[in-house]
Amino acid sequence: MDPVGVAAAPDAGPGPAWQSKCPWGAPNTTSISCSLADVMSEQLAKELQLEEENAAFPEVVAVAEGPFISGENIDTSSDLMLAQMLQMEFDREYDAQLRREEKKINGDSKVSISFENYRKVHPYDSDSSEDGVDWQDTRHDPYRADKPTTTPRKGFIGKGKDITTKHDEVVCGRKNTARMENFAPEFQVGDGIGMDLKLSNQVFNALKQHAYSEERRSARLHEKKEHSTAEKAVDPKTRLLLYKMVNAGMLETITGCISTGKESVVFHAYGGNATEDKVIPPECAIKVFKTTLNEFKNRDKYIKDDYRFKDRFSKLNPRKIIRMWAEKEMHNLTRMHNAGIPCPQVVMLKKHVLVMSFIGQDQVPAPKLKDVTLSSEDMKKAYYQILNMMQQLYKECNLVHADLSEYNMLWHDGKVWLIDVSQSVEPTHPHGLEFLFRDCRNVSQFFQKGGVAEALNERELFNAVSGLNITADNEVDFQAEIEALEKMNEDHVQNHGKKLSMFSSDGDPPIYDE
């Protein structure tokens, strides 16, 4: 039979109903011609397959299992859904990489590490058989018994050779190891999971005591940072004082730190607007006395016997000593400035913050005498100037520097300036002459090393400054006579209740000039 003729038979007229469904009959719809590329397309094949499945099973909705799903699925029409599925796939790959790293690092070691905290997908969300249960529930903890055991009242368990008391070394060791979990979180005790550790009572007690000490030390450090000045820094209370000075117009701006020491920190600042009763220099030096009490524990000898502060001195309140220390330097600088001795001029004092005139120019402080290189003429000039200043300080200001050296003398504008006089005392102080002799030794040694031939030795310089005629051949006898004079003055104070105005001398000290 010719197939062309069969294809043309539908116009033969009406027939029985079974003839319309005959497989050999021609389809009612006309065929749509398509190209070879459309026939070979995978997308077209998938669409045709979906159409056949929908026609055969119209009530079943196809659900895709992978991230690559056709756009006809209503479940993936949302970009948020696609992003979550992609993120979940990425998290699973990331967790698989972490598990490989764990196996590589741990190996056969008894001490193992875990990246559980870094996993993206929790074990109960993962399809892996390894993560089917939480590892923390199945991991063996050597510090805890598998079943809770109770210690009987009699204090031991077992019989005969197998008896075990509560003082057993192994039992106590494991209990001590478990107790380490009660230490403070800041105290690192290590990770002992997987190891059967046994700590003796001696080791545990030592660790416990150390943990308590560290906890107290941490609290002290925190309090110290909150309530005290530190290196090149100030505490909140000091910062508030400086802010008030700037806001009040006393200071224009504070530029930064220029010097640090054991007892204080010095800042540079530009002066503000002058008032009617106070002249503020263009550049100021702010000396902030450190409120850390460690540096002032051994400094009470400079202040407790000073009659100006003796009644106010309290060894039980060291914070007051710090304020008194700043006040003492203010009074000493005022005396020196009134006597015409080159020194910083006091501007104001607020608690432990002292504002003075700045010795230097354009934020550059004047160099210390130990750091500057002087010619022989300038060195000789500086020596005679210091000698006259020591005599003025002793006679006119009634003071002894008590820490005079090349570290506390500045060279500025061709002359020497004295600084750091917070520890200065009066000659009638129980140790005033000892301090003066120490200053004379420092000055003599510095200028003798500097090549000044006219420099006196410490004993001659002491007699020249104080006006006392102590004729001792050696230093030991010289210091013995100084101590005898101090003892005589102290006895006089105890008997008469007042200080001697001045030590007895044969006349005014000679004034040395160049």
UniProtKB/TrEMBL annotation:
It catalyses: L-threonyl-[protein] + ATP = O-phospho-L-threonyl-[protein] + ADP + H(+); L-seryl-[protein] + ATP = O-phospho-L-seryl-[protein] + ADP + H(+). It comes from the Eukaryota. Its cofactor is Mg(2+). GO terms for biological process: defense response to virus; innate immune response; ribosome biogenesis. Keywords: Antiviral defense, ATP-binding, Cytoplasm, Immunity, Innate immunity, Kinase, Magnesium, Metal-binding, Nucleotide-binding, Phosphoprotein, Ribosome biogenesis, Serine/threonine-protein kinase, Transferase. The keyword Cytoplasm applies. One of its GO terms (molecular function) is protein serine/threonine kinase activity. Residues 125-160 are annotated as: Disordered. The keyword Transferase applies. Residues 136-147 have a biased composition (Basic and acidic residues). Gene3D superfamilies: Phosphorylase Kinase, domain 1 (3.30.200.20), Transferase(Phosphotransferase) domain 1 (1.10.510.10). One of its GO terms (cellular component) is cytoplasm. Its main location: cytoplasm. Transmembrane segments: none annotated. Its EC number is 2.7.11.1. Residues 223-467 form the RIO kinase domain. It is found in: Cytoplasm. Interacts with CASP10. Interacts with IRF3; RIOK3 probably mediates the interaction of TBK1 with IRF3. Associated with 40S pre-ribosomal particles. Belongs to the protein kinase superfamily. RIO-type Ser/Thr kinase family. This is Serine/threonine-protein kinase RIO3. It comes from Aramus guarauna. The lineage of its organism: Eukaryota, Metazoa, Chordata, Craniata, Vertebrata.
